[in-house]
Amino acid sequence: QTSEEEINSFTVGSSAAFDTMNPLSSYMQATYEFFMLIYDPLVKYDENYEPIPGLAKDWDTSEDELTWTFNLQEGVKWHDGEPFTSDDVKYTYELMMDTGLGYMYSSYLTGITDIQCPDENTVVISTDFPKANMLMNSTPILPEHILSEIPDEELEIWANENPVGTGVYKFDSQGDNFVKVVVNEDYFGDIPEVDEYIFVSYDNIDSMAQSLMLGEIDGANNLNTAQYNQLMDDENVSVISGEEKGFMQVGVNCWTADESGGNPLLKEKGIRQAIELAINKQKIVDMAYNGHGTVGTTLINPGDYFHYEPTEAELRSYSIDKANDLLDSTGYVDSNGDGVRESSEGEPLEFELITIADNLEEVKSGQMIAADLAEVGIKVNNVTMDSGALYDQIIGGTYDMFIWGWGSDVDPTVITGVLTTDQIGGNNEPFFSNERYDELFLLQQQELDEEARREMVWEMQQIAYEEAPYIIIIYANNIQAIRSDRWTGFKQIPETGTYFFNLTDYNYLNIKPVE
Amino acid sequence: MKWILRIKKMKEFGKAVAKNKMALTGAVILGVFILVAIFGPILVPFSTMEFGAVEDMLQPPSGKYLLGTDDMGRDILANLIHGARISLLIGAVATLISMFIGTLVGILAGYFGKGLDNVLMRFTDFFLVIPWLPLMMVLAAILGTSLWNIIFVIGITGWAGTARVVRAQTMSIKERQFVERTVSIGAGNLHIMLRHILPNVFPLVFANTVLVAAVAIVSETTLSFLGLGDPTMASWGMMLHYAFEGGATAAGAYWYYLPPGICVVLVVLSFTLLGYAFDEILNPKLRGR
Amino acid sequence: MSNSNVVDIKDMKVHFDIKRSLSQDIIRKNKIILKAVDGVSFSIGRGEILSLVGESGSGKTTTGKAILQLAPLTEGSVDFLGEEVRQNDKAFMKKFRQEAQMIFQDPYQSLNPRNIVMDIVAEPLDVHGLVKTEAERLERVRQALEQAGMSPVEEYLYRYPHELSGGQRQRVVLASSMILEPTFVVADEPVSMLDASIRTGILRLLLELREKKDLAYLFITHDLSLAWLISDRIAIMYLGKIMEIGKPDLIIHRGIHPYTRALTAIMPQPGVNKRNDRVILPGETPSPIEELKGCKFNTRCPIAKDICKEIEPILEELESGHFVACHFAKEI
Amino acid sequence: MTRKIIARKLLYALLTILVVLVFNYILFRVLPGNPLSMMMRNPRATPETIAAVKEFYGLDQPWYLQFFTYFKNLIHGDLGISFVYKAPVAEVVAKKILPTVLMVGLAEIVAIVVGIFLGIIAAWKRGTKLDVATLSFSLVTYSVPTFWLGMILVVLFSVQMRLFPTSGMFTPGKNFITTFAMLKDLFRHLALPVLTMSLVLIGQYALTMRNTLIDVLSEDYITTARAKGFRERYILKKHALPNAMLPMITIIAINIGFVVAGAIQVETIFSWPGLGRLMYEALRARDYPLLQGVFLLVTLSVVLANVLADITYSYIDPRVKN
Amino acid sequence: MTLLEVKDLKTYFDTSKGLYKAVDGTSFDLDYGEALGLVGESGCGKTTCALSITRLLPKEGKIHGGEILFEKTDLVKLNDNEIRARRWKDVSIIFQGSMNALNPVMKVGDQIAEAVVFHEKVSRKEALKRAEELFELVEMPAKRINNYPHEFSGGMKQRAMIAMALACNPKVIIGDEPTTALDVMVQAQILNLLEKLRKELRMGLILITHDLSILAETCDKIAVMYAGKIVEIGTVDDIFMRTGHPYTQRLISCFPNVGKEKILPPAIEGVPPNLLEPIKGCSFYPRCHMGIPICLEIEPESRELGGKHFAACHRSGEVSHE
Ligand SMILES: Nc1ncnc2c1ncn2[C@@H]1O[C@H](COP(=O)(O)OP(=O)(O)OP(=O)(O)O)[C@@H](O)[C@H]1O
Ligand SMILES: Nc1ncnc2c1ncn2[C@@H]1O[C@H](COP(=O)(O)OP(=O)(O)OP(=O)(O)O)[C@@H](O)[C@H]1O
Ligand SMILES: [Mg+2]
Ligand SMILES: [Mg+2]
To answer: Three-state DSSP class for E176?
Structure first.
């Protein structure tokens, strides 16, 4: 038995909860973080989000770009000692494609038509169109020898109490609010220095910050801004406000159909644009988010390869005058002197803005937006509800405006797909529909030339920005911290990004104890 | 003549309250808060409630801001004063709802007895036994987090205790001879309930009111704290919610998380003191020397 | 005959089913019957005072209440001024409720502590809608209070019951009962809670009212000597039955029924010193829930024979107006 | 007699439970927001997946069918499957019972002992400074919102003094070498939740005890006992306390609902892995089956605690016993 | 030697409205085996008198003057411990309304035995045996000592109280309205019993009641109390035949005498004086039918009317001839 001191144990606290240990039914981001360590995908990301070998040691595509051949690492064993083979890959992909399980991963697999295993170490995947995101696929490969034992109908609720993967860390134990993984000495790649990672979920962020300061944990995710200031003063801790993929937006109901329950005035682009002009996004960033974020514009974060930055002419930065001019010119004036503009028919510019009650920043933002819009004669009534109720409103199209956020990933497909006509009734919350946008969406999926693909994605962002179904307020940061008195070797990913929860395992593999 | 008597009675009660140290303390504290709730917002201009400048965020107490500012740069004192109105309004209206339901159910069950009593009492038992906070949480989640929903939720979950005591009292009053005497002169049920039962259960309802009000205010605070309050209404509970969620404890912003809590404690304490004292005044056994 | 009587009750029975609640119904099926009044017949003439005497729980109050339809009749009938009392005849009941009144034992409990004297006394008027104006109401109240010996009236009108003494309270009760000018009053131990010193005042008032208004009383008491003093006839009750009924002197000095005799024997008599001959009945009265065969008194009767345990004696007229329910009435 | 009373109480409890069951069901059906909303926020979830999941949870059936299924399953002890944990509700809930019982039980014991003790002192020394002090303490703790008290204690004991950890039941992921080390860790974590919880309860128990005892001390049989020449202490112990304890039992039982409310707050603040926190999380995540399960368990235990108190009462109070 | 001598006893209550002179200069004495009846209307101070003798006054009540000589010891001067040792052993008291004077949660036998154990330092077993004997003495089945008070009827409770009062063979028993609220038949039984026991055990008995008529048969001596003072005291014959005070006379006439004519005596109008205020002259004057101007000025002294018959009236000689 080893004593406690000899082990390099690193504890990561996060304010997000874990759900199930079953990758087929889990949907919590916090859970993915350790799945990433326990299970390997075929291809991983490096710290620059370039594809690097995972279970596939190299890969190749055919001339017509419709067939992919993956050569697998040799001698890989599952944590239980069983050998890993190409059949496991085939099994995992087919299971997810057939059953729809593994919600978070299965859409990476769209376009795959056939999987062949010519030998134990080769997987050949055929697609029906050139699959642009083939290498941006983080689907974990699961052990066939274990899953095939479980009846199909029970796969979803399978507890997976003892996850078996091929990853660099093995599952060790699980407590009420923590999961512990220990290093896999038999791993086919390099063995990291940290012997075990403990992922702890906290209900209360303050407790987490306290624990960090007390040294009970070594790293923390999702701290709040007050703690940021506090931890800045703590020399033992390295705290960062890292950029994260995703944004917070005001969704505007622009559903043109008759059954829309939103205020019809919002169907008018001019009004949506005027609203954006009147919102002091910088102040929201500064006050509601305490400066931890950047003013938002388009669907993809700045710094991302695919980000489109609106031109000076396109940009609608905060300007009350411009907003007033725009409204005046479209014929909305305050004719009865009550401080609220009316349409020519006398319809007041009065909208409901729904925020999710337990999201403090968003509630604050909502209140600030209401105050901003009042300045230009648009009356906003703040309403709060919980996410479930808001979801109902969104699905039913019975709202005017709401505040919510999206997280995104490396591949632009997912986040741009949200505004396609296909997704109306699903993720397309503002009921936005634009033919050109839809067309571009399909094209970019099949474009393997990066530059060309970026052009398309840019145009999509341009359209979305011009039409303003989403008024993107902020790209918010994630505040994270690590006990730098004890650990070294970690870095922000990408350069202005975060330590953890950034889709790569770079830091987990490179953290070292301080000598 | 009659109203002179009524005033006289109220004066007597007032005297009893004034003599009872607990009641007096409670009445004074509550009185101050009620005055603040009524006149405070007039004295403190609302502009101080609006978001301040970025450099005003979470400032400690100073000459400019007596109790400092919150994380939105608002004056905490102004917030507190404004919150007094909301918290007390919630307390008052929710209590009224509770009292109305409780008294009605109690009197009906106690007076008519038998089947109606059984049905009403099973119903009351249910509300009495069911843990109030989870029930409120679920109801608040169902109805959504608006001020009136919160009031409604607190109101309809708080009446069971009152119904029980009113029922017991009604049953004992019903057996009193003056009720039987009234029956014997040919009076109907409504007459008896209004003229004889109600006035006699009233002191009890009154003493209960203050206790229910205390519970109502704590309930509001707790619901708000758990994120089930109305975030657009800056009640004390909501202030605490913002304070704790916004990391006021980590930031050491004691001026943010202490005052609303102290206000809640004081108001609840004043109600508790009054309730306890009323109990003593109305229950001769407990009466002091 | 019937028309000259104020009330006529025939074979009246009041049985209470003393477990009524839902759960009890489910748990135990057979009922528990309490026979509070178990077959009582008598009548009261105009201006007559009939005293009902018996120990606690013998059914005196229940009898009085049953006459006034305040307790449910299980069997038997009550005639009021020659007409049968029907609960569901609204018009008749309205008249009946005005004509027949009840005065309760406890003056401390019969007044609503939250009403002032004026409202208490006027309540019957309000209930029956008998006065139109406030002035008329005040006048009627004033009259009633004066009649009850509460003068000066102004001094009491606006008082609450707790500001009155026991005697004054009972007077207020009286005033309130008399304000409708009834013809029949059930007085249920109206003075037993009062101090001896104020007792006679109330009795005097009751008798005066009879003189003036030709009122008839059912006077319920457990005090035999008091019954003797004020009534025209005395009925002795035991366990829901009438044991003996007759003129006061007859009952007191020549009572026939062994129970009557036991009662008269223990009657405290002021100034009569230390009688050593008094017979005190052993044991206690059986519970009215128990099923008793034969004479209800047989468990305590000093002269009980076998027959008493088998057959229940009926109330028989020994001499004119003197009825006794005992198998050995003639022999005693 | 006792049997009859118990039977009646059980019957009433059964009725209450029935109301709870129906109410419970209805309540959770009218909650707004599709329970799958959290899952469906996942941009990658396809409509087919969603439909499949719905079918799996029976959410595609009409509500009355769902009700019958609910009832049928309930009888078999099947509370459904948690949306979040993807595991049978009974299992998820079962794991949380012990921590809650441990924390709440300990707090109750402390509160009952201390509360009763304070109540006795206050009543006994009525009108003295000691009474005033006890009374003030009780009234103040009675008035403090539980969560706020908890927060203040955290600031005091964890942030300022760094005496106790702020959350959880054990230091996460720690391997304990000895049982003693484990218990030590457990008690360090228990300290603040139990302190918070019992402080809130103490006030209430002390106030009730004081009132009851003052009531009892004015009874005639106490005068009789004095007339018998007994010492005051003896009278308190032998005559007053047994009579005063009877109402306390009822109060403690009725209080369980209040305790549950406190537990939710305390567990949420201290991240105590118990039922209260589970419930709060289930509510936020709209995990209907789980929420329903916890709610049911909690209400049932409150109903049963009341029945138990009634039964105990009927055994120890001779007036009810016979 | 007299057993008990009360001399000029003054017991006042300290109320919020002032000093309430409930007992104000009361004197009487009691011999071994003698029965004294104390009679008077409600509130005249009878109970206060009894409580003063046993020093069981509520804390607002205080003895402001006078002596209570019990076998020559002044009970007023004893400290708490000394008086406690004397209670029940020397003087025991049966309270008004024994319904509430027995501890409801204790077996009756235990309540009797604890007094025996306390005062006579015997074992509990012996004490219980004594309780059984006492039960037989008061004509109750011995095995019923194992019952709880609520299992007894009113009359039985009263008997149990008497048995309890006899537990330590007291020299004086005070019965404070031991039969009010009881049925006439039971009342007669209890009075008979008390009389029998008194004779057998040669105890002094003070019987308090407001019903003059029942005293005639039970007592040797009667003291009539009015507004905190004894206005007349004497043998039963003295009181009834040679009445020396108008109040006594009016009181007697309130009880109908079935041996005599049926006449309803005039009522005693008015109410007793307010004892908070000083009274000038005779306190009965406002209600007296024989009042003369001097009564308004000078408070009448207690005057001897022959033998041990005293009355406090300026016209005491003329009363019985009225
Ligand atoms: N409403 C009722 N329900 C059940 N039992 C009743 C009811 N009213 C009276 N009783 C019972 O009926 C019996 C007769 O009661 P009632 O009051 O008529 O006696 P009473 O002769 O007036 O006695 P008391 O002298 O004590 O007033 C008693 O045993 C009583 O308990
Ligand atoms: N604790 C007290 N405080 C103030 N006044 C009291 C107190 N106890 C009794 N009194 C008053 O003292 C007077 C005498 O009371 P006491 O009980 O001795 O009368 P009593 O003759 O026994 O009357 P009853 O026949 O009603 O029992 C009453 O007027 C009563 O109001
Ligand atoms: Mg009666
Ligand atoms: Mg008395």
So the answer is: strand
